[in-house]
Design a protein that fits this description.
Layout: H1 2-35, H2 39-67, H3 69-83, H4 93-125, H5 130-152, H6 157-179, H7 200-206, H8 210-242, H9 247-266, H10 268-274, H11 277-297, H12 301-315, H13 318-359, H14 362-366, H15 368-382
Helix pairs in contact: 1-3, 1-4, 1-5, 1-6, 1-8, 1-9, 2-3, 2-4, 2-13, 3-4, 3-6, 4-13, 5-9, 5-13, 8-9, 8-12, 8-13, 8-15, 9-12, 11-12, 11-15
Protein backbone atom coordinates (compact mmCIF):
# COMPACT_ATOMS: atom_id res chain seq x y z
CA UNK A 1 0.00 0.00 0.00
CA UNK A 2 2.84 2.37 0.88
CA UNK A 3 4.53 1.66 -2.46
CA UNK A 4 1.28 2.32 -4.35
CA UNK A 5 0.71 5.65 -2.63
CA UNK A 6 4.30 6.69 -3.19
CA UNK A 7 3.98 5.77 -6.87
CA UNK A 8 0.85 7.95 -7.15
CA UNK A 9 2.59 10.92 -5.53
CA UNK A 10 5.70 10.62 -7.70
CA UNK A 11 3.47 10.25 -10.75
CA UNK A 12 1.80 13.49 -9.67
CA UNK A 13 5.13 15.30 -9.66
CA UNK A 14 5.90 13.97 -13.15
CA UNK A 15 2.52 15.28 -14.34
CA UNK A 16 3.09 18.66 -12.68
CA UNK A 17 6.49 18.91 -14.34
CA UNK A 18 4.93 18.34 -17.76
CA UNK A 19 2.02 20.70 -17.05
CA UNK A 20 4.29 23.60 -16.12
CA UNK A 21 6.53 23.01 -19.11
CA UNK A 22 3.55 22.64 -21.45
CA UNK A 23 2.16 26.02 -20.41
CA UNK A 24 5.55 27.64 -20.97
CA UNK A 25 5.65 26.15 -24.48
CA UNK A 26 2.31 27.72 -25.41
CA UNK A 27 3.53 31.17 -24.34
CA UNK A 28 6.81 31.10 -26.30
CA UNK A 29 5.44 32.97 -29.37
CA UNK A 30 3.91 35.69 -27.14
CA UNK A 31 7.05 36.08 -25.05
CA UNK A 32 9.18 36.19 -28.21
CA UNK A 33 7.09 39.05 -29.55
CA UNK A 34 7.06 40.81 -26.18
CA UNK A 35 10.85 41.06 -25.97
CA UNK A 36 11.24 41.64 -29.72
CA UNK A 37 13.56 38.67 -30.21
CA UNK A 38 14.70 37.28 -33.54
CA UNK A 39 14.91 33.50 -33.98
CA UNK A 40 18.59 33.63 -33.03
CA UNK A 41 17.87 35.92 -30.07
CA UNK A 42 15.16 33.60 -28.80
CA UNK A 43 17.53 30.65 -29.20
CA UNK A 44 20.10 32.50 -27.10
CA UNK A 45 17.54 33.26 -24.40
CA UNK A 46 16.37 29.63 -24.38
CA UNK A 47 19.96 28.66 -23.73
CA UNK A 48 19.30 29.98 -20.22
CA UNK A 49 17.04 26.99 -19.56
CA UNK A 50 19.78 24.68 -20.79
CA UNK A 51 22.52 26.20 -18.65
CA UNK A 52 20.39 26.36 -15.51
CA UNK A 53 19.18 22.80 -15.88
CA UNK A 54 22.47 21.15 -16.82
CA UNK A 55 24.40 22.81 -13.99
CA UNK A 56 21.68 21.83 -11.51
CA UNK A 57 21.55 18.27 -12.82
CA UNK A 58 25.26 17.88 -12.25
CA UNK A 59 24.76 18.83 -8.60
CA UNK A 60 21.43 17.12 -7.92
CA UNK A 61 22.81 13.62 -7.41
CA UNK A 62 25.03 14.93 -4.60
CA UNK A 63 22.19 16.98 -3.15
CA UNK A 64 19.90 13.94 -3.22
CA UNK A 65 22.54 11.86 -1.43
CA UNK A 66 22.94 14.50 1.26
CA UNK A 67 19.38 15.71 1.78
CA UNK A 68 17.30 12.97 0.14
CA UNK A 69 15.53 12.85 -3.23
CA UNK A 70 12.21 13.74 -1.59
CA UNK A 71 13.40 17.04 -0.20
CA UNK A 72 15.08 17.99 -3.47
CA UNK A 73 11.91 17.06 -5.37
CA UNK A 74 9.82 19.45 -3.27
CA UNK A 75 12.36 22.29 -3.40
CA UNK A 76 12.84 21.93 -7.16
CA UNK A 77 9.10 21.83 -7.88
CA UNK A 78 8.66 24.96 -5.78
CA UNK A 79 11.44 26.75 -7.63
CA UNK A 80 10.14 25.71 -11.05
CA UNK A 81 6.58 26.86 -10.24
CA UNK A 82 7.74 30.23 -8.91
CA UNK A 83 10.20 30.80 -11.77
CA UNK A 84 7.50 30.15 -14.38
CA UNK A 85 6.01 33.53 -13.49
CA UNK A 86 9.16 35.43 -14.45
CA UNK A 87 9.65 35.17 -18.27
CA UNK A 88 6.49 37.07 -19.21
CA UNK A 89 7.62 39.99 -17.01
CA UNK A 90 10.82 40.50 -18.99
CA UNK A 91 11.34 43.20 -21.63
CA UNK A 92 14.66 42.21 -23.24
CA UNK A 93 16.39 39.11 -24.54
CA UNK A 94 19.03 39.34 -21.79
CA UNK A 95 16.51 39.55 -18.96
CA UNK A 96 14.45 36.75 -20.55
CA UNK A 97 17.54 34.55 -20.62
CA UNK A 98 18.26 35.31 -16.95
CA UNK A 99 14.71 34.39 -15.91
CA UNK A 100 14.87 31.18 -17.94
CA UNK A 101 18.13 30.31 -16.17
CA UNK A 102 16.20 30.14 -12.89
CA UNK A 103 13.34 28.22 -14.51
CA UNK A 104 15.85 25.74 -15.95
CA UNK A 105 17.45 25.21 -12.53
CA UNK A 106 14.09 24.16 -11.10
CA UNK A 107 13.35 21.98 -14.12
CA UNK A 108 16.71 20.22 -14.01
CA UNK A 109 16.66 19.54 -10.28
CA UNK A 110 13.09 18.25 -10.37
CA UNK A 111 13.71 15.84 -13.23
CA UNK A 112 16.75 14.18 -11.71
CA UNK A 113 15.11 13.93 -8.27
CA UNK A 114 11.83 12.42 -9.48
CA UNK A 115 13.60 10.00 -11.82
CA UNK A 116 15.70 8.82 -8.87
CA UNK A 117 12.53 8.24 -6.85
CA UNK A 118 10.96 6.43 -9.80
CA UNK A 119 13.95 4.09 -10.19
CA UNK A 120 13.66 3.11 -6.52
CA UNK A 121 9.97 2.35 -7.00
CA UNK A 122 10.62 0.34 -10.18
CA UNK A 123 13.33 -1.63 -8.37
CA UNK A 124 10.94 -2.52 -5.56
CA UNK A 125 8.09 -3.38 -7.93
CA UNK A 126 10.29 -5.59 -10.12
CA UNK A 127 8.61 -4.51 -13.38
CA UNK A 128 9.74 -2.12 -16.18
CA UNK A 129 7.34 0.64 -15.06
CA UNK A 130 9.48 3.66 -15.94
CA UNK A 131 7.46 4.50 -19.10
CA UNK A 132 4.33 4.94 -16.97
CA UNK A 133 5.99 7.74 -14.99
CA UNK A 134 7.08 9.47 -18.17
CA UNK A 135 3.56 8.99 -19.55
CA UNK A 136 2.43 11.19 -16.67
CA UNK A 137 4.93 13.87 -17.77
CA UNK A 138 3.56 13.68 -21.30
CA UNK A 139 -0.02 13.78 -20.03
CA UNK A 140 0.88 16.86 -18.02
CA UNK A 141 2.40 18.40 -21.14
CA UNK A 142 -0.76 17.58 -23.07
CA UNK A 143 -2.97 19.12 -20.40
CA UNK A 144 -0.68 22.12 -20.18
CA UNK A 145 -0.77 22.73 -23.93
CA UNK A 146 -4.56 22.34 -24.12
CA UNK A 147 -5.28 24.49 -21.07
CA UNK A 148 -2.58 26.92 -22.10
CA UNK A 149 -3.97 27.20 -25.63
CA UNK A 150 -7.36 28.17 -24.23
CA UNK A 151 -5.93 30.62 -21.69
CA UNK A 152 -3.59 32.23 -24.22
CA UNK A 153 -6.57 33.32 -26.30
CA UNK A 154 -8.11 35.32 -23.43
CA UNK A 155 -5.24 36.31 -21.12
CA UNK A 156 -1.88 37.96 -21.55
CA UNK A 157 1.25 35.84 -21.18
CA UNK A 158 1.95 37.53 -17.85
CA UNK A 159 -1.44 36.69 -16.35
CA UNK A 160 -1.33 33.20 -17.87
CA UNK A 161 2.04 32.17 -16.46
CA UNK A 162 1.35 33.79 -13.09
CA UNK A 163 -1.86 31.80 -12.69
CA UNK A 164 -0.16 28.54 -13.69
CA UNK A 165 2.79 29.25 -11.37
CA UNK A 166 0.46 29.76 -8.40
CA UNK A 167 -1.35 26.54 -9.31
CA UNK A 168 2.00 24.72 -9.42
CA UNK A 169 2.90 25.96 -5.94
CA UNK A 170 -0.46 24.76 -4.59
CA UNK A 171 -0.09 21.29 -6.14
CA UNK A 172 3.47 21.02 -4.84
CA UNK A 173 2.21 21.79 -1.33
CA UNK A 174 -0.42 19.05 -1.53
CA UNK A 175 1.90 16.38 -2.96
CA UNK A 176 4.76 17.20 -0.59
CA UNK A 177 2.53 16.60 2.44
CA UNK A 178 2.56 12.87 1.80
CA UNK A 179 5.98 12.64 0.14
CA UNK A 180 7.92 14.14 3.05
CA UNK A 181 6.02 12.12 5.67
CA UNK A 182 6.30 8.72 3.97
CA UNK A 183 9.01 6.33 5.02
CA UNK A 184 11.92 6.00 2.59
CA UNK A 185 12.41 3.04 0.28
CA UNK A 186 15.68 1.16 0.23
CA UNK A 187 17.37 1.93 -3.12
CA UNK A 188 17.31 -0.81 -5.74
CA UNK A 189 20.69 -2.61 -5.88
CA UNK A 190 22.80 -1.93 -8.97
CA UNK A 191 22.55 -4.72 -11.51
CA UNK A 192 24.79 -5.92 -14.28
CA UNK A 193 23.92 -7.14 -17.75
CA UNK A 194 22.64 -10.71 -17.85
CA UNK A 195 24.47 -13.36 -19.89
CA UNK A 196 23.43 -14.06 -23.46
CA UNK A 197 24.04 -16.95 -25.77
CA UNK A 198 25.14 -14.80 -28.68
CA UNK A 199 27.18 -11.72 -29.29
CA UNK A 200 30.10 -12.89 -27.14
CA UNK A 201 32.58 -10.29 -28.40
CA UNK A 202 30.15 -7.43 -27.87
CA UNK A 203 29.12 -8.77 -24.46
CA UNK A 204 32.73 -8.92 -23.32
CA UNK A 205 33.22 -5.33 -24.42
CA UNK A 206 30.37 -4.19 -22.15
CA UNK A 207 30.87 -6.62 -19.27
CA UNK A 208 32.00 -5.02 -16.02
CA UNK A 209 31.76 -1.51 -17.47
CA UNK A 210 28.44 -0.11 -16.25
CA UNK A 211 29.68 3.48 -16.54
CA UNK A 212 30.28 3.04 -20.25
CA UNK A 213 26.83 1.50 -20.63
CA UNK A 214 25.23 4.35 -18.71
CA UNK A 215 26.93 6.80 -21.08
CA UNK A 216 25.62 4.84 -24.09
CA UNK A 217 22.06 4.97 -22.79
CA UNK A 218 22.60 8.61 -21.92
CA UNK A 219 23.38 9.31 -25.59
CA UNK A 220 20.14 7.60 -26.64
CA UNK A 221 18.26 9.70 -24.08
CA UNK A 222 19.97 12.83 -25.41
CA UNK A 223 18.96 12.15 -29.01
CA UNK A 224 15.37 11.52 -27.92
CA UNK A 225 15.16 14.49 -25.59
CA UNK A 226 16.61 16.79 -28.27
CA UNK A 227 13.47 16.17 -30.28
CA UNK A 228 11.18 16.67 -27.29
CA UNK A 229 12.77 19.97 -26.36
CA UNK A 230 12.93 21.27 -29.92
CA UNK A 231 9.29 20.47 -30.65
CA UNK A 232 8.21 21.89 -27.31
CA UNK A 233 9.67 25.34 -27.89
CA UNK A 234 9.60 25.56 -31.70
CA UNK A 235 6.69 23.34 -32.78
CA UNK A 236 3.98 25.92 -32.06
CA UNK A 237 6.09 28.66 -33.64
CA UNK A 238 6.55 26.55 -36.79
CA UNK A 239 2.81 26.07 -37.17
CA UNK A 240 2.11 29.73 -36.40
CA UNK A 241 4.84 31.38 -38.50
CA UNK A 242 5.32 28.92 -41.36
CA UNK A 243 1.82 27.43 -41.72
CA UNK A 244 -0.10 30.52 -40.53
CA UNK A 245 -2.06 28.78 -37.77
CA UNK A 246 -3.59 30.89 -34.99
CA UNK A 247 -1.94 30.88 -31.55
CA UNK A 248 -4.61 28.55 -30.19
CA UNK A 249 -4.45 26.18 -33.17
CA UNK A 250 -0.66 26.23 -33.16
CA UNK A 251 -0.83 24.82 -29.64
CA UNK A 252 -2.61 21.80 -31.16
CA UNK A 253 0.70 20.62 -32.61
CA UNK A 254 2.32 20.17 -29.21
CA UNK A 255 -0.97 18.80 -27.86
CA UNK A 256 -1.00 16.15 -30.60
CA UNK A 257 2.65 15.34 -29.91
CA UNK A 258 1.97 15.03 -26.15
CA UNK A 259 -1.14 12.91 -26.70
CA UNK A 260 0.86 10.49 -28.83
CA UNK A 261 3.56 10.39 -26.14
CA UNK A 262 0.92 9.50 -23.54
CA UNK A 263 -0.40 6.65 -25.69
CA UNK A 264 3.08 5.37 -26.48
CA UNK A 265 4.33 5.52 -22.91
CA UNK A 266 1.15 3.99 -21.50
CA UNK A 267 1.94 0.90 -23.55
CA UNK A 268 5.67 1.11 -22.84
CA UNK A 269 5.77 -1.48 -20.06
CA UNK A 270 4.03 -4.03 -22.30
CA UNK A 271 6.26 -3.20 -25.28
CA UNK A 272 9.49 -3.52 -23.29
CA UNK A 273 8.34 -6.82 -21.76
CA UNK A 274 7.25 -8.40 -25.04
CA UNK A 275 9.29 -6.80 -27.83
CA UNK A 276 12.53 -6.11 -25.93
CA UNK A 277 14.57 -2.99 -25.43
CA UNK A 278 16.43 -3.02 -28.76
CA UNK A 279 13.26 -3.28 -30.86
CA UNK A 280 11.57 -0.52 -28.86
CA UNK A 281 14.56 1.82 -29.13
CA UNK A 282 15.44 1.29 -32.81
CA UNK A 283 11.86 1.08 -34.06
CA UNK A 284 10.79 4.12 -32.09
CA UNK A 285 13.76 6.21 -33.18
CA UNK A 286 13.26 5.45 -36.89
CA UNK A 287 9.52 6.14 -36.61
CA UNK A 288 10.27 9.53 -35.07
CA UNK A 289 12.79 10.34 -37.81
CA UNK A 290 10.20 9.77 -40.55
CA UNK A 291 7.47 11.64 -38.68
CA UNK A 292 9.65 14.71 -38.19
CA UNK A 293 10.53 14.92 -41.86
CA UNK A 294 6.81 14.99 -42.64
CA UNK A 295 6.00 17.55 -39.93
CA UNK A 296 8.82 19.88 -40.96
CA UNK A 297 8.70 19.69 -44.74
CA UNK A 298 5.02 19.20 -45.71
CA UNK A 299 3.39 22.67 -45.72
CA UNK A 300 -0.13 21.42 -44.93
CA UNK A 301 -1.34 22.04 -41.38
CA UNK A 302 -3.29 18.78 -40.75
CA UNK A 303 -0.45 16.67 -42.17
CA UNK A 304 2.14 18.57 -40.11
CA UNK A 305 0.11 17.93 -36.94
CA UNK A 306 -0.16 14.25 -37.92
CA UNK A 307 3.62 14.24 -38.31
CA UNK A 308 3.94 15.60 -34.76
CA UNK A 309 1.84 12.68 -33.55
CA UNK A 310 4.09 10.16 -35.33
CA UNK A 311 7.15 11.79 -33.73
CA UNK A 312 5.48 11.50 -30.32
CA UNK A 313 4.75 7.79 -30.81
CA UNK A 314 8.32 7.18 -31.94
CA UNK A 315 10.08 9.06 -29.16
CA UNK A 316 7.68 7.96 -26.42
CA UNK A 317 9.70 5.17 -24.84
CA UNK A 318 13.27 6.08 -25.80
CA UNK A 319 14.01 8.33 -22.85
CA UNK A 320 12.32 6.26 -20.09
CA UNK A 321 13.81 3.01 -21.38
CA UNK A 322 17.30 4.52 -21.51
CA UNK A 323 17.15 6.21 -18.09
CA UNK A 324 15.51 3.18 -16.49
CA UNK A 325 18.31 0.96 -17.81
CA UNK A 326 20.93 3.35 -16.46
CA UNK A 327 19.25 3.32 -13.06
CA UNK A 328 19.12 -0.47 -13.05
CA UNK A 329 22.85 -0.60 -13.77
CA UNK A 330 24.12 1.99 -11.29
CA UNK A 331 21.21 3.12 -9.13
CA UNK A 332 20.57 6.85 -8.51
CA UNK A 333 24.03 7.82 -9.74
CA UNK A 334 23.23 6.11 -13.04
CA UNK A 335 19.94 8.01 -13.22
CA UNK A 336 21.72 11.30 -12.56
CA UNK A 337 24.39 10.61 -15.19
CA UNK A 338 21.99 9.47 -17.93
CA UNK A 339 19.49 12.20 -17.05
CA UNK A 340 22.15 14.90 -17.22
CA UNK A 341 23.24 13.70 -20.64
CA UNK A 342 19.66 13.15 -21.78
CA UNK A 343 18.12 16.36 -20.50
CA UNK A 344 21.10 18.17 -21.96
CA UNK A 345 19.53 17.25 -25.29
CA UNK A 346 16.09 18.38 -24.14
CA UNK A 347 17.45 21.76 -23.17
CA UNK A 348 20.08 22.21 -25.87
CA UNK A 349 17.61 21.39 -28.64
CA UNK A 350 15.66 24.70 -28.55
CA UNK A 351 18.68 27.04 -28.78
CA UNK A 352 20.34 24.87 -31.44
CA UNK A 353 17.15 24.97 -33.49
CA UNK A 354 17.11 28.75 -33.08
CA UNK A 355 20.67 29.13 -34.34
CA UNK A 356 20.02 26.80 -37.27
CA UNK A 357 16.77 28.59 -38.13
CA UNK A 358 18.60 31.92 -38.15
CA UNK A 359 21.01 30.61 -40.76
CA UNK A 360 18.58 28.52 -42.83
CA UNK A 361 14.84 28.23 -42.14
CA UNK A 362 12.87 26.86 -39.21
CA UNK A 363 11.53 23.84 -41.17
CA UNK A 364 15.08 22.97 -42.26
CA UNK A 365 16.34 23.35 -38.70
CA UNK A 366 13.63 21.00 -37.40
CA UNK A 367 14.91 18.21 -39.66
CA UNK A 368 17.88 17.94 -37.29
CA UNK A 369 15.46 16.06 -35.02
CA UNK A 370 15.29 13.32 -37.66
CA UNK A 371 19.07 13.20 -37.83
CA UNK A 372 19.45 12.77 -34.06
CA UNK A 373 16.69 10.15 -33.97
CA UNK A 374 18.58 8.15 -36.60
CA UNK A 375 21.73 8.41 -34.46
CA UNK A 376 19.74 7.04 -31.48
CA UNK A 377 18.65 4.04 -33.58
CA UNK A 378 22.25 3.34 -34.59
CA UNK A 379 23.52 3.56 -31.00
CA UNK A 380 20.74 1.23 -29.82
CA UNK A 381 21.79 -1.36 -32.40
CA UNK A 382 25.44 -1.09 -31.31
CA UNK A 383 24.40 -1.66 -27.68
CA UNK A 384 22.01 -4.51 -28.46
CA UNK A 385 24.16 -7.13 -26.72
CA UNK A 386 24.08 -5.22 -23.44
CA UNK A 387 21.23 -7.27 -22.02
CA UNK A 388 18.50 -5.98 -19.77
CA UNK A 389 19.20 -6.59 -16.08
CA UNK A 390 17.94 -9.87 -14.71
Amino acid sequence: MHLTRLRIVVTGFFALDGFLFGNWVVCVPQVKAQVGASSGGLGLALLGISLGAVVTMMLTAQLCSRFGSRVITVLSATLMSAALMLPAQMTSVASLGASLLVFGAGFGGLNVAINSLAVDIVGRAGRPMMPSFHAAFSFGGLAGSVVGGVIASVLSASAHLTAVGVFGLAVTGVLSTYLLRSRPLAPAPPQVPAPQREGNAARERWAGRPRRLVAVFGVIALCSAYGEGALADWGALHLHADLHASIGLAAAGYAAFSAAMVVGRSSGTWLLSHAGRTVVLTGGALTAAVGMLVAALVPVLPIAILGFMVVGLGLANLFPAAVGQAGALMGPSGVAAASTIGYGGLLAGPPIIGFLAERTTLPAALTSISLLATVAAAVAVLARHAADPA
